[in-house]
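User: Here's a chain of 286 residues. Predict its fold as tokens.
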Amino acid sequence: MEAFWILFTLLLLGSACAAIGTFLVLRQQSLMADALSHAVLPGIVIAFLWSGIYGGLLTWFAALITGLITTTLILWIQRHQSLHQDSVIGLVFSFLFALGILLLSAFARKIDLDQECVLYGEIAYLPFSPFIADLIPVQSVKVLFMAILVFLIVFLGWRGFSLFAFDPAFAHSLGFDPKRWEQLLLLLTTILVITAFEIVGVILVLAYLIIAPATAWLTSQRLTIMVGKAILYSISATFLGYFIAVFLDVSIAGAIGGVSFLQLCFIALYKVLRRRLRQASYLERF
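Assistant: Prediction complete.
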């Protein structure tokens, strides 16, 4: 039963991250997920100092507010300064993360909290977390509701997300405000990252958000197929990584992240070899 809840939570989380991550990859905003996962540290520390409790609704809300501040700052600086997006993301992310580290170091003697505790979760501890009526882990319920929210918004806003992802100018000409869709995409990314990193850790969240969609981007041109493949790659990496982790008695998050990367490498190598074979076949004709 423990394995069931772990896989259930991971599959829901990976599928939701793959769906949103596809749009991040297409918009070249994958670095935003990494920035958010670290930039929320000041909010988490402040919430802990205020309540003395790590986790729960207050921590989630504080992290959400910090994440929204992060995305707002990034978008504002990007629109008012002649800086590339990756530079702006690095600027805001490094400042907020440094601020969080300063808060931790300043109050290190008063609180039992460090960056490893904040940034790196472990899904293997899920069966030992609180349950609702001894039936389902609370963390699994959080991920379930988050996944439903993500898929519902993506489904209802599919046309807007599609137009925004491929051609913001064309989307604007049809009455879709690209700024609003970008804000919605980053809001969903923020909710995903904040809900997930306490459960599975930063590494696995980023693997789900970036690697699986990037792998799908290598093998498909149509958006619907790309999203579907990203979800399938996420699911296959989850199953294979989990069983490898159990067999070798290693980190589940690390195993799934490693399998995800190997999938990407295999697909990329396959594409290179196929292209080389086609070129060789073409040259043989002359």
